[in-house]
Design brief:
Layout: E1 8-14, H1 21-40, E2 47-50, H2 57-69, E3 73-80, H3 90-93, E4 100-104, H4 118-123, H5 126-139, E5 145-148, H6 154-173, E6 177-181, H7 195-202, E7 205-209, H8 211-219, H9 223-236, E8 238-239, H10 250-270, E9 274-277, H11 291-298, E10 302-305, H12 309-321, E11 329-338, E12 345-348, E13 364-367, E14 379-382, E15 388-397, E16 402-412, E17 426-430, H13 434-444, E18 449-453, H14 458-468, E19 471-475, H15 481-498
Parallel strand pairs: 1-2, 1-3, 3-4, 4-5, 6-7, 6-9, 8-13, 9-10, 16-19
Antiparallel strand pairs: 11-12, 11-18, 12-17, 13-14, 15-16, 15-18, 16-17
Helix pairs in contact: 6-12, 6-14, 8-10, 9-10, 10-11, 13-15
């Protein structure tokens, strides 16, 4: 998984030449202290890099040009220590390609009542300097995050940290490649989408690769490499006796290991960050990919089944955003319901591909009939998922725009054994309640495929959607269905007008 500390946000302070060199040196000193303080904050997972104060149109334009092409720069934090006439910013902001956060702060936390004079006032002008800067960004219709508060406050660092995680996910999408092995599951609507528009809007590409190309890689593997993969299974997991060497199903484990190694080699050689497949397009493979897909997701690859490239890309982005936080982000599907007036639940799972990063205990390696796909019985990891705050996120193509829908949920510890269900599974309660949550999701056109997150929040995903310039709908604890329906209608009108 990506090390977020290798990524940078540039701390950029605006001023002007009006105040003289002594004042500008104080501006620079204060800015360096703020950048260093934010860089040291535990809630901010990326590196905060101080940049020299910009004081003219040319300095601003040059710095933003540099930020646009800097490989590890994922965004800018901007602050106006003094008054920085905003017409100086027009040329630079007009070419900005990276996310921007406007930090409305000041170096001192309090007014020095007994000593404040005009020198102090001329230096510490953020209260109105940031308003001038805010106007020009609004005038340019720039999407940005605004954080208000003293830079040493824990809440300020937390808000900046959330934004940087979203920026890291957005940065990871730029130039990313996702592979589809086969096409979309036949006749399914919600997993389809405009891949050309997605590349224009999101920055990643999606292309289809023949199953024969993957099978050729699988069939060319050195048996010793496959043996090492099987040894890793035995070391990490509780492997069913029949799958172990000498067992009647050991050949199934060999085939599963070959698929995993072949998939990994294909993805690594092609520089892919995620992939999808579908059980209808796997000609030449002995069994459906199960344990291999699960483990590749745990390594950080995005994945979704049935050709669902949008969810595969979202899973990857959310894995990057959540890197280093407790819990995981994983491909999920609302599979079946437990309608109970006192305790309604959703059972989430997928045929084979639930990410073991969610596992609450040691996963078991088992093989069972699947009843779909027409292949040999596939090997998979079986486990339960622990409870706790979580959410499900989905991106759908609405024809004239992409829409992200997020439902906050509460994961629930399993209350009953599922001895005959041979898949990994998670239970949750949708907010605000089962009836409203499900109705709102369906009203919004949310997909049956999602990314289930144990460590991201509405705040992360809203920031990400803002960077992507897409519609965002939240179904949470305060959602009222009629108001939610009005929001959908208003959004429809807005996007028709804005396009």
């Amino acid at each position: 998984m990506i090390n977020l500390k290798t990524l940078e946000v540039w701390f950029v302070t605006g001023s002007q030449h009006l105040y003289g060199e002594e004042t500008l040196q104080q501006v620079a000193d204060h800015s360096q202290q703020i950048a260093a303080g934010l860089n040291a904050a535990s809630d901010i997972p990326v590196s905060v890099v101080f940049k020299p104060t910009v004081k003219s149109t040319d300095e601003i334009y040059t710095l933003i040009q540099q930020a646009n092409v800097a490989e590890n720069c994922i965004g800018l934090i901007t602050w106006m220590h003094t008054f920085s006439p905003a017409k100086m910013w027009i040329r630079g902001l007009s070419i900005l390609k990276k996310p921007v956060l406007h930090l409305h702060t000041q170096f001192n936390s309090q007014i020095p009542w007994s000593s404040i004079d005009m020198d102090f006032m001329n230096l510490n002008q953020s209260a109105h300097g940031d308003r001038e800067f805010g106007f020009i960004m609004s005038r340019l219709r720039l999407r940005r995050k605004v954080v208000v508060g003293h830079w040493q406050e824990a809440e300020v660092a937390r808000e900046i940290g959330v934004w940087t995680r979203a920026a890291a996910g957005w940065h990871d999408w730029q130039g990313a490649k996702f592979a589809r092995f086969g096409d979309n599951m036949r006749f399914v609507a919600v997993t389809e989408g405009d891949k050309v528009e997605a590349e224009l809007q999101f920055g990643f590409s999606v292309n289809t690769y023949g199953i024969g190309d993957l099978v050729a890689v699988i069939n060319s593997l050195d048996p010793a490499v496959v043996d090492r993969q099987i040894t890793e299974y035995l070391d990490i997991y509780d492997v069913a006796a029949g799958l172990q060497k000498g067992g009647e199903q050991h050949q199934s484990l060999i085939e599963a290991a070959k698929i995993e190694v072949g998939l990994r080699n294909f993805l690594q050689d092609g520089g892919f960050k995620g992939f999808s497949d579908t059980f209808e397009d796997l000609h030449g493979m002995v069994q459906l990919p199960g344990i291999g897909v699960q483990r590749l997701m745990a390594e950080g690859y995005g994945f979704a089944g049935e050709g669902d490239w949008k969810t595969a890309a979202l899973v990857r982005a959310m894995k990057v955003m959540g890197s280093g936080l407790p819990g995981g982000n994983a491909f999920m599907e609302d599979y079946t319901y437990h309608f109970d007036a006192q305790n309604s639940l959703v059972l989430g799972s997928h045929m084979l591909e639930v990410d073991p990063i969610l596992a609450s205990g040691k996963p078991k390696v088992e093989v069972h009939p699947l009843g779909i796909g027409g292949k040999a019985d596939p090997v998979r990891l079986v486990f339960n998922v622990s409870g706790g705050a979580a959410l499900n996120a989905s991106i759908v193509d609405m024809g004239n725009r992409f829409r992200m829908i997020v439902n906050e949920v509460e994961g629930v510890e399993p209350v009953n054994d599922l001895p005959k269900l041979p898949v990994a599974r998670v239970l949750w309660k949708p907010y605000p309640d089962m009836k409203t949550g499900c109705a709102a999701w369906i009203q919004a056109g949310g997909a049956h495929h999602t990314c289930y997150s144990q460590n991201l929040t509405d705040e992360h995903l809203h920031a990400f959607a803002e960077m992507a310039g897409i519609e965002y709908l939240l179904i949470g604890k305060e959602t009222k269905l009629r108001e939610f329906q009005k929001e959908i209608a208003w959004n429809d009108a807005y996007y028709k007008i804005s396009k």
